[in-house]
Amino acid sequence: xxxHDVIVLGGGISGVCAALxxxxxxxxxxxxxxAAPGDEASRANAxxxxxxxxxxxxxxxxxxEILSRVMRPAGRIxxxxxxxxxxxxxxxxxxxxxxxxxxxxxxxxxxxxxAIAAGEHLALARAASALRFFRRTGWIKIYxxxxxxxxxxxxxxxxxxxGVPYTxxxxxxxxxxxxxxxxxxxxxxxxxxxxxxxxxxxxxxxYARLFRERGGETExxxxxxxxxxxxxxxxRTTRGEAEGRRAVxxxxxxxxxxxxxxxxxxxxxxxxxxxxxxxxxxxVTLSRPITxxxxxxxxxxxxxxxxxxxxxxxxxxxxxxxxxxLLRAGAAARALMPxxxxxxxxxxxxVRLCMPDGLPVMGQVPALPGLWLALGNERSSFGLGxxxxxxxxxxxxxxxxxxxPAPYSPVRFISD
Length: 416
Ligand SMILES: Cc1cc2nc3c(=O)[nH]c(=O)nc-3n(C[C@H](O)[C@H](O)[C@H](O)COP(=O)(O)OP(=O)(O)OC[C@H]3O[C@@H](n4cnc5c(N)ncnc54)[C@H](O)[C@@H]3O)c2cc1C
Hints:
Bound molecules: flavin-adenine dinucleotide
Radius of gyration: 21 Å
Number of domains: 1
Low-confidence stretches: none
Largest sheet: 9 strands, mixed
Oligomer: single chain
Structural class: alpha/beta
Strand content: 15-25%
């Protein structure tokens, strides 16, 4: 039996950043994943380190809203009909969260994380020689319907409170920022302080490499083998049994299944999104992510080409992927700017967890001593990963945390 202070299960951005920050505080850490680090949601995202995103997703509540998301989502998150029974407890919890003031709570709780998110990433990236992936060119959002623009007021409201700059964009401003957009006459917002990366998987893998270079151990193993022992937790890896005084579940969409085996049920759901790259048309460039809110997609420059991200659907992880998920987004993106041939034959799926209140879950599981959670939220936990890792390590080691960890605690969903 090999002993560690902490076993971190899951080598996505949440697990890798937690492992690095625990290691930096003197912990002997083992990082376990069933595959190579950085190959799941932390690779398959839009790579935006958002400075807005203060409000939770407006999940459908009434039967009519749910039905319309099943039938004709038109740019909004689709609900997979067969996954609906499994998603109902989550939708109920999301409704309850809104009823009890989640919008204001989430905005206030996410602000301190967002404030240091990019700085924490850059500190790790500098040490991991990964600064080349980061760019500070902001984020453009375009709104084709007035109602969608008005719905963004919640985010703008919190941005004003927390001093996050944004500007309204005219059609002329848009084209000035991105000269190759086909000019059009819609509302737009520009978030200049938002950073983005050209390879979220590359960033996560660079951080995992840094963890190993600093003496951390990485092994392959299935989190389903995690069991409580007399002194902590043990897991079986390809190198045998490993024991840790404490364990951190950072399994992303894999977490609910593993937690259920330990008797822990969280009211979370899984959301799949897709991406695909396109070659650039000669002489045509895009300098920053641009999100077309009403068509439900983001187009952003990545190492492999222009990445189109969309086709978001609330669905069970075992439901088949939809090869047609990006068709409508692709057509809308082509109307936005000239884009070349697609790189991949089929879109690449990525699954993330959704929390009823839109906040990550970080903290110790009540009634299971030594078991901690580090679970990203649905929209911004690539960007928040480094800050969350720091907060987790500070909380676990008894250091003074840079922010109050209470709003992220699993206690909001699980009682003793
Ligand atoms: C389409 C899409 C677009 C997104 N866009 C953005 C964005 O622009 N900005 C942003 O900040 N966030 C974005 N997100 C969200 C972000 O990607 C996630 O919140 C974040 O990557 C979650 O990281 P994680 O480490 O928690 O999970 P993951 O990256 O999924 O890592 C979980 C790890 O656990 C491992 N694992 C799972 N189950 C087991 C098991 N049983 N045993 C062993 N190992 C296991 C997996 O192999 C994986 O390596 C997006 C997500 C998607 C899908």
